[in-house]
Every structure is written in C-alpha cells, then in structure tokens.
C-alpha cells in the first residue's frame, strides 16, 4: 500500500536516473508535472490499441521467425542475445530510427550503441571507480548515434512532415514512431535538437533493455514451471490466457528495475502517516512489494500463473 501510494503521489518526482543526466535529462521518464503531462499526451497518441495490434499480429511474428531461422544452427544460442536481436528492430522502429544499410555489421554497431547508451540508466547504481570513463563512453555513444542514425532519420522525417503540413500527403502516411510524432507537434513542444536526440535515444534503450530482461526471466520461469507440472509446451501455447498469466507472473517476480526512486518536490505525506520534507529521497522496493503474501497470497515468492488475481491490484505488481 505504501509503495502504491508513493508511486501515485504527484509531489514525488522521479530520481532514479538523476546520475544519468548526460542522457536522461529532460527525457519523458524524468519530466515532472505539466511538462511531463504535455509530452506524454503527445507521445501517447502513438501507443494506441491499434498500434499494439499491428505489432502483435503483423510485425512481431515474421520478425521473430526470421531471427530464429537465422540462428537455428548456431551453437550455443543464448536467449539474451536472441532477445536483443529481436528488440533491436522493434525498438528502432518504435523510436523512429531508420536502418540505412540493413547489414549484420550495422546490427552489431546498433547493438553496441544500445548497450553503451543503456549505461546511462544505471549510472546512479555504479559502485566502482569507472564513473568518468562510463560518462565519456556514453557521451561518445550519443554522438555516434546522432551522426550515424538520429541525424539522417530526423532529416527524412522532417521532409515528410513538411509535405504533410503543405497538404501534399496525409498524416496517416507518415511513419508511426515517436520521432515523427514529436516533429509533427514541434509547434507545441518546441524541443531543441539535443532534447529530441536524447528522447529518441532514451526510447531506444528503454524499450529494449526492459523487454530483453523480462523476456529472459519469463522463458526461464515458464520452462521451469513446465518441468515441474509436466505440462507439454504445445498445450500451454494453445491456452493464450494462461500464457498471458505466465508473463504477468514473471514480470511481478522480476520487475525490470528492483527499485523505483523518488524525491519529494515539496513537503508532502503518504497515507501511512509518514511526513516527507521537500528533498527527502524515497526508495520504493518493488521486488519486496511485488512479493507481499498479504496481497499475492502465501506462495507470493513462487511462480504460479494460476494464482487467484489480487483484487484491485495489477497482477504484474
Ligand atoms: C517488459 C517490458 C517493459 C517493462 C518491464 C517496462 C518497465 C517500465 C517501468 C517500471 C517504468 C516506470 C519507471 C518509473 O516510473 O520509475 C517504465 C517507464 C517507461 N517505459 Fe517501459 N517497460 C517496458 C517496455 C517498454 C517499451 C517497449 C517502451 C517503448 C515503446 C517503454 C517506454 C517507456 C517510457 C517512455 C517510460 C516513461 C513513461 C513516463 O514517465 O511517462 N517501455 N517502463
């Protein structure tokens, strides 16, 4: 309850990524209040039900099939690597970054950029003495991303948006991605080149790393559970609802970030009677919250897709 109240408290602002400001400053997840609302309202125009249907029904199945077909004979096959190969394409496509060559070398370069950019999200948790080297590495990754990918992708979309504004083509013909949407609404948002670059780099890393993490845990949990229960894979695949419950259950047990961090923007309180002075740091322990027996049942620590759904709670925690 306390975690939920803290997450819903608008006086607490995001602070998990403060140390990664080199990339994360002014990106959606770090915005607060009106600034957050106005950017989110526009970006939300992309993430409609029809968009997810398109991905689920038309884009993902052939992409996964083609990726697996290429890897089927490689040995060893690592699930994390396979997931990155799939998410690379999906994340670029969501974000609005064009692949210019489509070669394996380009995929490898983009994959390396993804890993280097991703370091920005966890800089705050770095405990070693490599901080300055990491920051320099992230900075050069941002610059490479800008020159090789973001710049050409922005230029192409700007031409298309100009044609829409001139009445030469319809909005429906535009690419469906975050970058196009932001360019289309630049008159309201007025984002600088640097902020646009960071926002798109953030989308690229936020969609990929989280999904790869979740998918890898999920496959491990599902196959372990099938081993214990003796249920054949084919039977599970026929039961789409159970399959979805498996995904929810795995995301609950393995949140993409074990903690959420917030800081009080002004003096505030949460319903357990805890008063927070402005500037107080709040750590929300998602792993523990998602395994509360009072909410999820006595076996909350276990993967059990058949568990009774907690009332008025998200099954994913
Ligand atoms: C299984 C996959 C995913 C998981 C587990 C996940 C998890 C999360 C979590 C926990 C947050 C909130 C962080 C916080 O408030 O402290 C978040 C925010 C966000 N995620 Fe994801 N995510 C996933 C996939 C994606 C994908 C595919 C995209 C892009 C298409 C994406 C884009 C974002 C954005 C833009 C935000 C910021 C939202 C805002 O502040 O309004 N995520 N994600």
Automatic annotation (TrEMBL):
Pfam families according to UniProt: p450 (PF00067)
SUPFAM superfamilies, per the entry: Cytochrome P450
GO MF term set: heme binding; iron ion binding; monooxygenase activity; oxidoreductase activity, acting on paired donors, with incorporation or reduction of molecular oxygen
Transmembrane regions: none
InterPro entries per the UniProt record, alphabetical: Cyt_P450 (IPR001128), Cyt_P450_sf (IPR036396), Cytochrome_P450_monoxygenase (IPR050121)
Region (Disordered): 297-317
Family: Belongs to the cytochrome P450 family.
Protein name: Cytochrome P450
Organism whose genome encodes this protein: marine metagenome
């Amino acid at each position: 309850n306390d975690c939920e109240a803290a997450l819903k408290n608008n006086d607490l602002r995001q602070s998990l990524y403060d140390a990664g400001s080199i990339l994360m400053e002014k990106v959606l997840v770090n915005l607060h209040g009106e600034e957050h609302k106005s950017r989110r309202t526009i970006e939300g125009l992309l993430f409609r039900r029809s968009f997810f249907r398109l991905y689920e029904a038309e884009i993902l199945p052939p992409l996964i099939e083609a990726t697996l077909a290429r890897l089927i004979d490689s040995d060893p096959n690592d699930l994390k690597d396979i997931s990155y190969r799939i998410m690379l394409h999906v994340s670029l496509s969501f974000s609005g970054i064009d692949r210019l060559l489509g070669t394996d070398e380009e995929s490898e370069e983009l994959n390396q950029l993804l890993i280097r950019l991703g370091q920005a999200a966890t800089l705050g948790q770095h405990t070693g003495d490599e901080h300055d080297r990491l920051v320099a590495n992230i900075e050069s990754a941002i610059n490479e991303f800008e020159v090789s990918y973001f710049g050409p992708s922005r230029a192409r979309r700007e031409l298309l948006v100009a044609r829409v504004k001139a009445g030469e083509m319809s909005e429906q013909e535009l690419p469906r991605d975050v970058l196009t949407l932001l360019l289309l609404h630049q008159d309201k948002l007025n984002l600088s080149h640097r902020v646009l670059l960071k926002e798109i780099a953030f989308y690229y890393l936020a969609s990929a790393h989280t999904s790869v993490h979740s998918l890898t845990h999920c496959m491990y949990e599902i196959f372990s559970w099938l081993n214990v229960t003796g249920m054949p894979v084919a039977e599970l695949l026929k039961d789409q609802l159970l399959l979805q419950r498996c995904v929810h259950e795995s995301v609950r047990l393995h949140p993409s970030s074990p903690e959420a961090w917030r800081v009080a923007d002004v003096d505030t309180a949460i319903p357990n009677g805890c008063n927070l002075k402005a500037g107080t740091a709040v750590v929300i322990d998602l792993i523990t919250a998602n395994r509360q027996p009072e909410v999820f049942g006595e076996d909350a620590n276990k993967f059990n897709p058949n568990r009774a759904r907690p009332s008025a709670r998200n099954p994913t925690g």
